[in-house]
Amino acid sequence: MSLLQITGLRGGYAAADEIVKGADLKVEAGEIVALIGPNGAGKSTLLKLIAGLLRPSGGSVRFKEQEIAGLGAPAISRRGLSFVPQERNVFGTMSVAENLEMGGFIDGAHARKRMAELYERFPMLSEKRRAAARTLSGGQRQILAMAIALMNAPDLLLLDEPTAGLSPRAAEELFGTILALNKSGVAILMVEQNALEALSVSARAYVLVQGRPEHEGRAADLADDPTVRDLFLGGKAQPMLRGNGDSSNKGTGDFT
Ligand SMILES: Nc1ncnc2c1ncn2[C@@H]1O[C@H](COP(=O)(O)OP(=O)(O)OP(=O)(O)O)[C@@H](O)[C@H]1O
Question: Where is the ABC transporter domain (predicted)?
């Protein structure tokens, strides 16, 4: 049984109730899965449906073999599924330490111990623990946002465009952080605009088009698939960025 198994998931917003139109998707324990696709395909909406920020209108979301569709975000988070939204994911006027405390509100007894572990994992956060979150760089802020989500020791982390707005170098560093996090055992489902980079760090991927996964498979195969390249990656065969260290080929993988 997969860690996360989604079947026929549907849902959207009050004003647009059918954005996700029957999505099937799975994430195995310890896996990194990328969710890519054109602007407006419904990628963020799909993550919000899984995380309980939006209530699905149909379908099933099974996490650790239990149905979670219809549960609220706090209940889902308590079960070990954390979501890092794309925007407003830290409290800017609060210190780094206070932001982490907010992430630990669910489990106060273990919050101190968990904070100490996270300071060890991310020394930058320890150095800046008294600084206001708004003074952090974009990349540092994303690490803080992930650390807040890690306060309740999740098995699965949903990341919505973690590298949005970052310089290529900061994005590269953040992908490294995401890989290291995954190696420590956390499964990751991430929406990314930097499609080639996302595929290069993922085991599998889904291409979402108009609310449905149209293509799925091993990330390396999707990166080479001519249809996927033509539709979503600009058509040109380009070397994978990770591994050959050549960031000069970046560009056509961006959707925005
Ligand atoms: N709060 C909202 N209320 C109504 N419609 C919304 C809301 N948020 C998003 N939408 C609509 O849902 C559709 C899918 O948006 P979504 O953000 O999920 O797409 P996406 O694939 O993540 O694209 P992007 O890369 O642009 O973020 C879009 O047509 C968008 O306008």
Answer: 4-235
In whole angstroms, what separates CA 35 from the centre of its chain? 9
Q: Are 103 and 147 in contact (CB under 8 A)?
A: yes
Nearest CA to ligand 1 atom 9: 45
DSSP structural state of residue 86: S
What top-level class would CATH report for the domain 4-89+154-249? alpha beta
Q: In one letter, which amino acid is 49? A: L
pLDDT band at 112 (very low <50, low <70, confident <90, very high): confident
Q: How far is the CA of 136 from the centre of ligand 1 (A)?
A: 28
Calculate mean pLDDT across residues 98-124. 84
DSSP assignment letter at 107: G
Supply the pLDDT for residue 232: 65
Cβ-count burial of 183 within 10 angstroms (0-12 exposed, 13-18 middle, 19+ buried)?
exposed
- Output the CA 134–ligand 1 centroid distance in Å: 26
Bridging pattern class, strands 20-27 and 4-11: antiparallel
Question: In this predicted structure, what is the pLDDT of residue 118?
Answer: 94
pLDDT tens digit string along 35-48?
A: 999 889 999 999 99
Instruction: Name residues contacting ligand 1 (CB within 6 A).
Output: 13, 15-16, 19, 37, 39-45
pLDDT tens for 172-224 read 999 999 999 999 999 999 999 888 889 999 999 999 999 999 899 999 999 88
Ligand 1 centroid to Cα of residue 130, in Å, is 35
Place of tokens 């405390």: 101
CA of 40 to the centre of ligand 1 (A): 5
Transcribe 6-38 into DSSP letters: EEEEEE--SS---SEEEEEEEE-TT-EEEEE-S
Residue 38: what pLDDT?
87
